[in-house]
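Re: beginner question about structure tokens

> Can someone show what the tokenized structure looks like for a real chain? I only ever see the sequence side.

Sure, here's an example I had lying around. Input first:
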Amino acid sequence: PIGHVLRTLPPVPLPVSRDPDDPVVAEDTLALMAFSPDGGTLAYGVSAPGRLAAPQRFVLWDVARGHARTTLDLATPSSAGALVALALGPSGHTLYATRTPHIGELSNEVWDTTRHRRTAEYSDATGTELALRPDGRLLVATDHTVRPPSGTVRAHNLVQGNEIGALAFAPDGSRLAAGDLSGRVTLWDGSLKHREGVLRNVFPTPLDDTAEAVSALAVSPDGRTLAVGGDAGTLQLWDIATRQPLGGPLTTAGDAIASLAFSPDSTTVHAAGTHVPLMRYTIDPARAVTQICARTGDTGLTPAQWHTYVPDAPYREVCGH
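And the corresponding structure tokens:
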């Protein structure tokens, strides 16, 4: 979230299976991570879906200082099911996690990261997608909401007739975007009292007419742009005010988009996939022109290159001579 730190973090140990004859290997694991709203703390680790495992260690990383603040074991004597989602509260003092205590069951937990203990469990607020409003006062768990610290749970149907694939609050908490498996995104106000609109068919229709599921979302810090990633690798930008797409899809490697993030000045979007390196896109036109001219030695793009990289705009010379 702070936009200028890129670091390779130390690995965490794999969860230890309670069945000694069925050890956990890397191919069995699911990587999980979550930033605190201020970007100062990152929680990260791996879980083993479908397994009972202990310990399950997750690291809380101090981003500014570049070292681990603490390590939590999120397995308890009564619950060693795999974790499937994380959210981190303000300053990183509270961790929210979705666990599968038993196959086919879900529960949400609250952990005090300073005292290393679980402080609450919400069995009624189940969901594999979590989003915490930046002020820490509203947790969305797929189709339920929780009001910390009271723990009041309410059912809330964020999308119509489909499963949620991704959730994202705006950085200022004024809006929530909920993407579903049919390729739609529903926009809500930050208190979830009013539905602001629905973006239908957020991705171009594929040749086989199969809808691409929304797998990642991010709202720009200036509140103007929504980045939508799909499970088939499509990355599309939308103008929130007009509810219109901004050009065509951005070029990707075709891998499912796992996460998205904007730079603090809203001019750059970063996309991460499961099997490809972090991708970076400059989306501010003036900044993009400056970068193009610098990389081409001030010669600009040829008409063929323009057609490849800027297909939705007529060709023009953009670099000075």
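Each token stands for a local structural state, so reading them left to right follows the chain. The chain has a mean pLDDT of 87.
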